[in-house]
Each structure stands twice: as structure tokens, then as C-alpha cells.
């Protein structure tokens, strides 16, 4: 039977630590501010952006909202980013993805100063992660490292299998586990014998984006299972990429959905904002 890795509690702990640190910085005359840009009004993005603003407020980080219409042009958006890059009162810039189709996402990501790139998406920060230099790391994978460390899961020397190779989760996750001295295998939609590969994992990190795809037959007895997915099942209940009820009895530890990986992303975004302010202002 698995221990439940409680992301809700761990993210709360991190937010409390940050709140205290931000209060101390404020007392020393240092304020921290995050610019949050949303283009259009995709309902899911609005929920995420709203949660990010709420977390800022709780911790004591000022959030400066840019709610831009769907028709905003690439040039207008780049103009705003340029202004924010040069504003010493702004420490982090977050542009919520996905952007409307007429906007070139890569160009927008590259326009954000790497020093204010609290999402860790800029190629300079991604490159820094590859070669072991300091830089901002994508928030969801950084949060998973915190979940593992704060749950006393040993990483060094373990076989880690990451399913998924996205720029936001799979790739940075694999690099972070490598940095922690795990032996890392990256799987994806073209992987042959996925089940057999997954069964070798001491730590299985699932970021496929397919509801309840991973059952007990993919999991080694005693493995630690991290579920990055979040979906609605046929009864409109939240579920992950993992069949939780089936995997729970054989894993040694598992993240639930909701309340596992999800809350960690915002906690790490807040952490990156505070780091940006401390390092570059
Ligand atoms: N869209 C989905 N996840 C994210 C995220 O972590 N950051 C941004 N900027 N957009 C997202």
C-alpha cells in the first residue's frame, strides 16, 4: 500500500516559507512584483491566471495584470514585454500559454528577459538546465523535485522513467532527475514496449496527457509514482494519467489527483519570483 504524497500540504509549506521571506524582504524595503499577461479569455487560462494572482496576494507579491484582447497583435504584445523587461519594479513576467493562433509563441517566450523568465521557458534558461548552470526551471518539474525531496524519496542511483517529452514538463523533468543523479529513461508515444520499460522504474513520472492510461501492469512493486495529468472522467470527476485505485496498492508512494502535482506548479512560480527579485534587483 502506498504512502500518499500530499502536494496540497507540501505546496502550503512552501508558500508559508515564501510568505515569511517576502515579509522580511519587505521590512528591508524590497518589494517583489510579477507581471501576469493573458491574451484572450480562454476559460482554463483564466482559472490558472486567477489562481496565480491569488497566490501572489497570499504571499505578499504584487501582481500586475495585463488582460489583453484576443485581437492583440504580436507587435503589441512584444511592445508590452519590452516595457516590462526594462521596468526595474517588475521582477517576473508570465505570459499565460497557449496564446491565440496568430501569435508566435516561441518569439514571445524568447522576448522575455531570461532574468525575468519565472516560467523557465526561455532557451537560455533551458540551456542552463542542460549544462548544469543556474537559471529558472519550469515550475511543474521543479515542484515534482520538491515533492520527492520533501517526502524523503531517494533519487540518486534510482531508475527513473519519465513518460512524456514536452518542453514544459517531460524534457526539463528528465534533466532535473539526471541532475539529481537518477538513471533516466524518457518515453513517448513512439516508445516500443512501454509497459516493460515502465516496469523497470523505481520512480515513474507520468506526463502523457491521456486519462487513466497507466494501470498496475506498468508499475513495479514498491515504485514511487508521480501523476502529472489532470482530466475529467466520464462522471466529471477529476482524474490523472494513472489509474490511481489500481496502482495505489502496489506503489510505495503516489501522488493523488487532485492534490498532488497540481498545487506545486504555482508554489514554484512564487518561489521563482522571489528568487528573481533576490538575484537581479
Ligand atoms: N499554460 C499551461 N501551463 C503553463 C505554465 O506553467 N506557464 C504558462 N505561462 N502558461 C501555461
Percent in strands: 15-25%
User: Quick one: overall form?
Assistant: globular
CATH 4th-level superfamily of the largest domain: NAD(P)-binding Rossmann-like Domain
Mean pLDDT over the full residue set: 98
Strand order of the largest sheet: 1-11-8-7-5-6
Description:
It is a single chain. The protein has 281 residues and is of the alpha/beta class. The protein folds into two domains: 30-113, Rossmann fold (3-Layer(aba) Sandwich), CATH 3.40.50.10860; 139-262, NAD(P)-binding Rossmann-like Domain (Rossmann fold, 3-Layer(aba) Sandwich). The chain is built from ten helices and eleven strands. It has a six-stranded parallel sheet. Helix 7 links the parallel strand 5 (159-163) and strand 6 (183-187). Helix 1 runs parallel beside helix 10, helix 2 (43-59) crosses helix 10 (262-280) and helix 6 (139-150) crosses helix 7 (170-179). It starts with a strand and ends with a helix. The structure holds guanine. Guanine binds next to strand 4.
Write a concise synopsis of the structure shown:
The protein is an alpha/beta fold and 281 residues long.
Features:
281 residues; alpha/beta; Rossmann fold; 2 domains; 6-stranded parallel sheet; 3-stranded parallel sheet; 10 helices; 11 strands; binds guanine
Amino acid at each position: 500500500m502506498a504512502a500518499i504524497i500530499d502536494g496540497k500540504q507540501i505546496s502550503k509549506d512552501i508558500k508559508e516559507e515564501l510568505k515569511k521571506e517576502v515579509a522580511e524582504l519587505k521590512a528591508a524595503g524590497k518589494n517583489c512584483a510579477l507581471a501576469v499577461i493573458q491574451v484572450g479569455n480562454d476559460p482554463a487560462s483564466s482559472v490558472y491566471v486567477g489562481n496565480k494572482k491569488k497566490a501572489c496576494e497570499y504571499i505578499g507579491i504584487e501582481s500586475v495584470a495585463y488582460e489583453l484582447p484576443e485581437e492583440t497583435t504580436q507587435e503589441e504584445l512584444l511592445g508590452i514585454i519590452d516595457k516590462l523587461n526594462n521596468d526595474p519594479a517588475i521582477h517576473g513576467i508570465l505570459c499565460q500559454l497557449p496564446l491565440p493562433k496568430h501569435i508566435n509563441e516561441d518569439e514571445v517566450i524568447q522576448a522575455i528577459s531570461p532574468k525575468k523568465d519565472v516560467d523557465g521557458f526561455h532557451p537560455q534558461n533551458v540551456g542552463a538546465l542542460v549544462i548544469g548552470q543556474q537559471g529558472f526551471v519550469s515550475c511543474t518539474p521543479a515542484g515534482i523535485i520538491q515533492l520527492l525531496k520533501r517526502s524523503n524519496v531517494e533519487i540518486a542511483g534510482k531508475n527513473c522513467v519519465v513518460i512524456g517529452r514536452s518542453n514544459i514538463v517531460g524534457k526539463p523533468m528528465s534533466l532535473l532527475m539526471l541532475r539529481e543523479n537518477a538513471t533516466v529513461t524518457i518515453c513517448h508515444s513512439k516508445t516500443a514496449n512501454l509497459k516493460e520499460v515502465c516496469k523497470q522504474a523505481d520512480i515513474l513520472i507520468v506526463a502523457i496527457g491521456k486519462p487513466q492510461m497507466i494501470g498496475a501492469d506498468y508499475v513495479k512493486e514498491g515504485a514511487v509514482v508521480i501523476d502529472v495529468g489532470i482530466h475529467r472522467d466520464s462522471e466529471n470527476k477529476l482524474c490523472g494519467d494513472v489509474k490511481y485505485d489500481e496502482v495505489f496498492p502496489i506503489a510505495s508512494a503516489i501522488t493523488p489527483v487532485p492534490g498532488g502535482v497540481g498545487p506545486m506548479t504555482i508554489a514554484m512560480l512564487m518561489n521563482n519570483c522571489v528568487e528573481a527579485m533576490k538575484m537581479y534587483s
